[in-house]
Amino acid sequence: MTITIDQNKLKMKSKDLEVFYQEFQALHSVHMDIEVNKVTALIGPSGCGKSTFLRTLNRLNELIEGTTIKGQVMLDDIPIYDKEVDVVDLRKRVGMVFQKPSVFPMSIYENVAYGPRIHGIKKKSHLNEIVEKSLIAANLWDEVKDRLNSPAARMSGGQQQRMVIARVLAVDPEVILMDEPASALDPISTSKLEELIGELKTNYTIVIVTHNMQQAARVSDYTGFFLNGQLVEFNRTDELFVNPLDKRTEDYITGRFG
Amino acid sequence: MGHKRSVKDIVITTGLWLAAAVIVGVLFVIVAYVFAKGISAINFEFIFQAPKRAGQEGGISTAIVGTLYLTLVSILIAVPIGVGAAVYLQEYANSRSKFAYVVGLTAETLAGIPSILYGLFGFVFFVIFLGMGWSILSGSMTLAIMILPTITRTAQEAILSVPREYRENSLALGATLWQTISKVVLPSALPGIVTGIILSVGRAVGETAALILTAGSSLNMPMTLGDLARTMAVHLYVLAMEGLSMERAFGTAFLIVVMVLIINYLANFSLRRLSNSMK
Description:
- The complex is a heterodimer.
- By secondary structure, chain A is of the alpha/beta class.
- Chain A is built from ten helices and ten strands.
- Chain A has helices at 50-56, 87-93, 108-118, 124-137, 141-144, 157-169, 187-200, 213-219, 237-242, 247-253; strands at residues 10-21, 24-35, 39-43, 67-75, 78-79, 94-97, 175-179, 205-209, 222-227, 230-236.
- In chain A, a hairpin with a 2-residue loop joins strand 9 and strand 10.
- In chain B, strands 1-2 form a two-stranded antiparallel ribbon.
- Classes of the chains: A alpha/beta, B mainly alpha.
């Protein structure tokens, strides 16, 4: 059972989406609507296809040899798997935060300035402005403003993950994908991150994969439950957790498996 | 039972320790011997003057310059090709591609070929067929081919050890594959690449057979790429084989060791400054 969202509020949308790794079918005909300026959570047991689905949204699946994708993914009114779509442009608009915070072996400043530089911004004052704005938006500025030139790897795990988010924000995306962004963090860093997600949705559309159902319930507006490569149920988060319509969803969220 | 095991344990531990100690011992004895026999030949004149009377008098300045010249040019030729091939194999080629497999196999085979065969090839191809004569250029190209497998393999290993997450993060930020490689992957792989270069420098500095056939053994100061040159290792060989002066042969050996140590130290030092600053 999946609900549809008012077409005027749609940011992304998948239709008949199927993904194959060699012969293995990882996703079966997934339809999902992603509303603008909302947080959409993807839950389900390991190997259910939620991360695979997330990675179709910025075409990161293409990096894996032998991947085939069928069906359609729309960003606004652009079919992103169309031949004419420039994948670089797509990834500028659809940023991604991964499980493990992966800071490049550079300074904090250089990490955050990496994206803008790649996209051709050279003026130092402009870069300074972007770095500051992004770190402020990621709730990290006050903690690092005095050591922007020190190595990013010396920050704590929670700070690194927020810096990675700042690095994504610096590219000025419209959608931010998060693949279990809190799985490597301690509880305090996790709550800071969740708070940040709540703030970010004012300006961005967020899709987050999580193993933690409480987290999905806390941060998201919509939740999709994946099982064996199928989107079993997609609904408003408050509906899905309180009143699951599919037996399998109920079993999963009440902890009977997974 | 426990007692028996502990005796066995001591025997094994001692045996393994001895095996490790042999390595240190051998190196120490060689270096000490070379230093002891060579130090008496070392003075200002020996380092800064050109050889006279076939090397029986004067210094070895032309051989020092020849060594640095040949090594530098061969590294300049081999590094772009070797690192380029490594980048192609690790980042661009499909892992199941036939071409990548053949290149890998070739590199491995090339690494096992005795240097005299490279010398023979260099002599026939560069010196005679291409008409480059005995020269720094012929010698450097031959050396470059010789060290290419080492540089390629070590660069490949270094690139392989760069976390996959770096690539994913960079690409997800909208970087192209080349931007990702040049700005994130290669800088991270630099320590490993430099290790390969250091190994290659050691091999180039110590090479004799291939160079006698391709760079000649002139005692004149090499200036242009077309000039003949004699390296320190070749000079050592000539001094010892022709009975010109054992003392000077050891003096030359001493300086070879010192040069290799200095190059290793400089490379490690600059590398540590470079990579520690961002970790």
